[in-house]
Amino acid sequence: MEEITLVDFKQKQSFVETERIRDVISRSLAYLNAGFPVHLKGPAGTGKTTLAMHLAHLLNQPAVIIFGSDEVRSAELVGGQFGYRKKVVIDNYIHSVLKTDETAEQQWLDGRLVNACKEGYILIYDEFSRSTPETNNVLLSVLEEKILELPINRVGENFIKVHPNFKAIFTSNPEKYAGVYNTQEALLDRMITINLEHWDRETEIRIVLAQTGMVAEDAKKVVDLVKNYRKRTGLNISIRAAIMIAKVSSQMNIPVSADNEIFVRICEDVLGGRTNAERTEAGAGNILKNQAVPVTAEQAIRSSISKLV
């Protein structure tokens, strides 16, 4: 287990603030400063992690980050015994006699949660619901009683009081996503959940402009194309798809036009792959919202492209 690294989140030049994003930021800061954990929940690609890091930047506090997965164990949160510390004492006081005394003891390293609670850091727990509920149980007393219980094999105190400056930001995807566990109600009850959906048209256009440098009129077309495809298929196609299409088209100087076959192929490659991924996540039977939707990804993509002005 590596030593804890504090992260200084600096504001990205490409970070976009619109009225809707500012509203989410304002509410999140109010909840965090009032002492409540914030849970940003939404589909992939809605900027949850970026927003969490931006909040940490605005709060101007040291932060630690944990990335949730089913391989995360409580040792990564509270710590554990990793490796050994060896001590050798050599006694050569009498020149003709050599005495040695060797001892070895396991070395304890505190986890990220312990350091954040002790020092008053911000904890960002990204995709926390990908970790098992058993692993996350340790958070219950931290968020409610403000006490962190420590393993009995740790040398020193058996619990620590949570620092008053400690703050926690959680992010997660909906439960329908593969690899996501159902979070226990007791944990959700201790945090304020802000449900994020795909951003409005103005916000997505500004994000694409900031990330790609594409001209405004073309960025609008790409965003409208992806939003139209998202609406037609009922799939959670994220803003990342629009960024990819815009960036590749801009760098290759490809016209954003339904008449340009290269542009059409770019859209098919980007959106087609995401369609297959969504079929795996949601199940083939839940993909189409109504019978009028094209039955293949290629039909849906070309139908959306044909709407370009």
From TrEMBL:
Catalyses which reaction(s): ATP + H2O = ADP + phosphate + H(+)
An individual GO BP term: gas vesicle organization
Alphabetized SMART domains for the sequence: AAA
A Gene Ontology term for the protein's cellular component: cytoplasm
Alphabetical keyword list: ATP-binding, Cytoplasm, Gas vesicle, Hydrolase, Nucleotide-binding
CDD domains: AAA
One GO molecular-function entry: ATP binding
Subcellular location: Cytoplasm; Gas vesicle
Domain AAA+ ATPase: 34-203
UniProt record similarity statement: Belongs to the CbbQ/NirQ/NorQ/GpvN family.
Name of protein: Gas vesicle protein GvpN
Species per Swiss-Prot/TrEMBL record: Anaerobacterium chartisolvens
